[in-house]
C-alpha cells in the first residue's frame, strides 16, 4: 500500500568549518544506505534533478575516481527521499494475516530531507589563512584558493538567505572536524557566526522556547578514520569491534559524546571547548545527540578482515593530492539524519510566532539588548559568563 499524500518534509541544515567534509558526507548518503544489512534498510535517492545530479556526479568521483568532491562554491539546496518498507507483521498478527489470505506487507515509510550544502566560507567571521599542508583539502576541496575572509563571499544577500534557511530548519547537523581543528583551531569562529544568526532570527520568529534554541542538533565527530583520531578513540576505549563480517571498528553512540568531550579537552583543542560550552547553553540537552562519523571509512585489504595496523584509507597520489585508497564504507553517515527525522516526527518543533508590532519607543531598546547578547559570540572567545 503506497503512502497517502506527498512525503513528509524535514528541513535539516548542515554546517561546519572549511574542509570538515560537508559535501563528502552528503555524497556518501546513498553509499551508506546501500550498505545497510537489515532487510528493511533505507533507500536514498535525489528528490529533484539537481539532487540526483549531485549524487551521480559525486558518487562517481568517490568510488570510481577515488577522489574527494570539488569545492562547494555557492549555497546549493538539495533534497533527498528516504524510503523503506514497513516492517512485515510478526507473531500472532502475521499468522492471522496468513489465515485470512491478506498480504503481509503494510506499505512503506517515506520522508523527504531538505538540506543546504554550503561552502565553509559562508560561516567565517575571522581573518586567517590556509596552511601549506598537503592534507589541507582532506575530504573535499572546499574553498581551495579562497582567502579565509572575503567580504564578497561572506556578506550580501546569499549569506543572509543561507542563515535564514538555517534558522528555519527543524534539525541541524554540525560537523566537528578534529583534524583541521588540531591544525587551525578555528571551529569556534565558524560555530559562533551561525549561532549568532540563528539566535537572532529565531528570536524574530518567536521560536525560542525556555531560553533555548528549538532545533534538534546532531553533532558529528567527523573523520574518525584519521590515524590520530583513531588512536585517541582506541586508547580511551571508545573504539570497539563492530558486529559485521569484516570486524570493522566503530564508536557506539553512547561513547560518541565522551569522544567529543575528550577531543575538546586535548592540549591542541583550540576553540573546541568553547563550542562545547555553547552547545550546552543554547540547545536543549534532550535534543542533542552525538555521532562518530567517517564518510569513507577504514581501509580493508581485499579478501581480508580489518587490520588495526593498516587502516588508513587516505593516501597521497602521484600529484601530491589526497586519494582514497580502497573501498568506501561510510560510518554513521545515515544515522544522524534518521535520528533527526525520528525526533522531529515524535516531537515537532513549535511553529513560528509572529510577534505583535512593538511600540517604536520600546523596539530599539529590545533590539539593542539582543544584539549586545549575541555580539559576544563574534569575539575571539566565549561570553564572560561561560
Describe the structure.
The chain is α/β, with parallel strands linked by helices. It is built from 13 helices and 11 strands. The protein has helices at residues 22-27, 29-34, 49-63, 91-99, 151-154, 157-167, 178-184, 187-204, 227-235, 253-264, 272-282, 335-346, 363-375, and strands at residues 8-16, 43-46, 76-85, 108-117, 171-176, 216-221, 240-241, 249-250, 288-292, 314-316, 322-324. β7 (240-241) and β8 form a beta hairpin. The model is unreliable at 123-156 and 361-386 (pLDDT under 50).
Could you give a quick summary of the protein structure above?
This protein is an alpha/beta fold and 386 residues long. It contains 13 helices and eleven strands.
The major β-sheet equals: 7 strands, mixed
The percent range for strand residues is 15-25%
Element order, helices and strands? EHHEHEHEHHEHHEHEEHHEEEHH
Number of helices: 13
Number-wise, the strands total 11
Write down the overall mean pLDDT.
76
Helix share bin: 25-40%
Q: Choose one word for the global shape.
A: globular
The rounded Rg comes to: 22 Å
Task: Give the low-pLDDT segments.
Answer: 123-156, 361-386
The neighbouring-strand order within the major sheet is 2-3-4-1-5-6-9
State the end-to-end distance: 53 Å
Computed structural class = alpha/beta
Amino acid at each position: 500500500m503506497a503512502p497517502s499524500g506527498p512525503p513528509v518534509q524535514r528541513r535539516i541544515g548542515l554546517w561546519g568549518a572549511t574542509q570538515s567534509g560537508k559535501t563528502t558526507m552528503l555524497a556518501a548518503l546513498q553509499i551508506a544506505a546501500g550498505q545497510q544489512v537489515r532487510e528493511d534498510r533505507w533507500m536514498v535517492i535525489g528528490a529533484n534533478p539537481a539532487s540526483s545530479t549531485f549524487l551521480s556526479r559525486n558518487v562517481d568521483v568517490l568510488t570510481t575516481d577515488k577522489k574527494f568532491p570539488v569545492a562547494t562554491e555557492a549555497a546549493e539546496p538539495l533534497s533527498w527521499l528516504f524510503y523503506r518498507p514497513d516492517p512485515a507483521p510478526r507473531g500472532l498478527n502475521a499468522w492471522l494475516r496468513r489465515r485470512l489470505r491478506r498480504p503481509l506487507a503494510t506499505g512503506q515509510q517515506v520522508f523527504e530531507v531538505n538540506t543546504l550544502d554550503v561552502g565553509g566560507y559562508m560561516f567565517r567571521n575571522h581573518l586567517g589563512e590556509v596552511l601549506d599542508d598537503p592534507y589541507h583539502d582532506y575530504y573535499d576541496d572546499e574553498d581551495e584558493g579562497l582567502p579565509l575572509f572575503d567580504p564578497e563571499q561572506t556578506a550580501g544577500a546569499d549569506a543572509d538567505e543561507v542563515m535564514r534557511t538555517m534558522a528555519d530548519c527543524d534539525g541541524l547537523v554540525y560537523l566537528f572536524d578534529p583534524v583541521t581543528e588540531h591544525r587551525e583551531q578555528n571551529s569556534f569562529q565558524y560555530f559562533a557566526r551561525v549561532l549568532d544568526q540563528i539566535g537572532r532570527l529565531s528570536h524574530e520568529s518567536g521560536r525560542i522556547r525556555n531560553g533555548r534554541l528549538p532545533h534538534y542538533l546532531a553533532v558529528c565527530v567527523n573523520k574518525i578514520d584519521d590515524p590520530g583520531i583513531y588512536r585517541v578513540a582506541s586508547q580511551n576505549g571508545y573504539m570497539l569491534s563492530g558486529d559485521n563480517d569484516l570486524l570493522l571498528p566503530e564508536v557506539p553512540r553512547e561513547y560518541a559524546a565522551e569522544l567529543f568531550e575528550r577531543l575538546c579537552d586535548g592540549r591542541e583543542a583550540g576553540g573546541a571547548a568553547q563550542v562545547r560550552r555553547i552547545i550546552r547553553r543554547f540547545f536543549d540537552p534532550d535534543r542533542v545527540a552525538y555521532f562518530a562519523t567517517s564518510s569513507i571509512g577504514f581501509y580493508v585489504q581485499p579478501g581480508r578482515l580489518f587490520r588495526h595496523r593498516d587502516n588508513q584509507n587516505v593516501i597521497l597520489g602521484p600529484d601530491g593530492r589526497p586519494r582514497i585508497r580502497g573501498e568506501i564504507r561510510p560510518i554513521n553517515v545515515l544515522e544522524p539524519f534518521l535520528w533527526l527525522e525520528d525526533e522531529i516526527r515524535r516531537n515537532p518543533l513549535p511553529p513560528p510566532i509572529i510577534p505583535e508590532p512593538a511600540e517604536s519607543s520600546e523596539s530599539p531598546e529590545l533590539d539593542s539588548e539582543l544584539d549586545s547578547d549575541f555580539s559576544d559570540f563574534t569575539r575571539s572567545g566565549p561570553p564572560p559568563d561561560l
